[in-house]
Design brief:
132 residues, alpha+beta, Ribosomal Protein L22, Chain A, three-stranded antiparallel beta sheet, elongated
Amino acid sequence: MNITTIQKYIHTSPRKLRLVADMIRKMDPAKALGILGLTPKDAAGDLRKALQTVLANAKQGGMDVEKAVFKKIEVNESMKMRRFRAGTKGRARPYKKRMAHIKIVLSDEGKVISQKTEKLKITKEGGNKGRE
């Protein structure tokens, strides 16, 4: 059985959230909840709230939370708010405030689905043309 939660429009950039998400991806959810409570990054608080939500959903759905494992943790990019900062000579400089969506899927099947990473082989002539 799979339990899913999606937190949308989190006001933290996806890059900062992915740093913390990669840290807890291989842990069991109960241990990850404790680690996130002690992590000094602001993104850890957002991920902790999402993890508490999915654990509450799992308990409400009848899943044994002690046997649950992460099937998937995704941090996706959301919309970008365009803002302006004062520049030199009275100009305005644009920048983007980035937001993120967090998707956590818990499973009680007892096996962790590993994340595949693709290795790139860099050559002198063509950059990333040759792949292993």
